[in-house]
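Sanity check

After download, print the first record. It should look like this:
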Amino acid sequence: MTTFSDWMVGCFDNRATPVFSIIICVWGTVFVELWKRRQARLQYMWHVYKLEGKEPIRPQFAGKLQEDPVTKQKDKVDYSRAEKRSKLAGSGLFVAFMILLVLASLVAVTVYRLIFEHDWLTDDAVESLPGSSLLPTLTASLIQACIILLLKVLYRWISWQLTRFENHRTQSQFDASLVVKLFAFNFANSYVALFYIAFFRSARYEKGFVGLGSKYRDSCGDTNDCMTMLTVQVAVLMVVLSLHKFAGDYLWPWIKKKWNEYRDRKNKQDGDVIELGHPGMTQGEKELIQHIIHQRQLPQLDMQKWDNYLLTEYSDKVIMYGYLMIFAAAFPLAPLLALIVNLLYLRLGDAKRLMWKTRRPIVQIAKGIGIWQKLMYFINAVAVISNGFLIAFTSDFGKEIGERYGQDGRLWLLVVFEVLHPNLL
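Expected structure tokens:
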């Protein structure tokens, strides 16, 4: 009788997995290069290709006033290099501390899952309930997703404060420093649990996980099938994070809108409505005034705060891009899921929010997507390495090669996979 786990293994981990991984890695390179070409064309059309050389000083920059020897005008200059390096070092140490906090949360969730598997889940439940063997992994994935969401919001505020503390001279320098902090943390926060399942969970520890005892060894089941566990984790993370964003960007504003409409109707019934304009106004003029008042009450998309619209959108899109690139071998449906989610965001989330839920945002000139493009190159390089190791050492295809040709066969498979993508590395 075929179990749910066996069905998942046959669907997502088969002989087509290496070919699909190669296609995804090549597609990632083509995608970034095509965007690079389009960005260069837009820079030329909008005359922003020399923007950074003309960039003004940030109003928030607290530099020392110094007289220019040529123009005799006072201008703000950077503080000493030693002070600047000390501030950057302090920020770096705090980022490292937050990444250690992510690792600590991974250890805590893993301990919960092991206790669930060995102490709470009985053999009778596994036999009577189909798919119950995946219950510890599923619940642990949900908890991990909630921790990721909580830490992401917390660190976004902290990174904003750290970047302000660094006191950058221009807005592009400020944005680059902020993005690097956010990406470093989000990379660890979003992917560290997946890397552990993919490459370290199959290791056999005599004293158990973090010394809990030999009973609590963190393996991937009797067949040591970590690929299925990784597939479940990636799928749960992508779905939960997408639902959270959809609820925050569309569902919650819709609920607030309905509540405000209910209050307006109740106030009209109670007679607490103030008539606008003068008695001689037409119905069309009154509706126009109501529309203007409604537009003024809409929130403004602030681009200068820690939770600003552009920063959140860029971060979410790049992290989702990392899921479908880095773990393509484990979850081949990730590109399709990302496409569906982004199409929904395009119409239900971003379009409605920009057109109807908020006032028109203030336009900010930019040369391109900035450092996000380099980070996408970085994700492509990590994707080639990650998918190569997944195929060679985690997938069933790699295990078959290992049984036939030994560890040397797996290493040669890894080398062949990496050589197929020289441009990425």
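If your output differs, re-run the checksum step. Summary of this record's structure: Strands lie at 64-67, 74-77.
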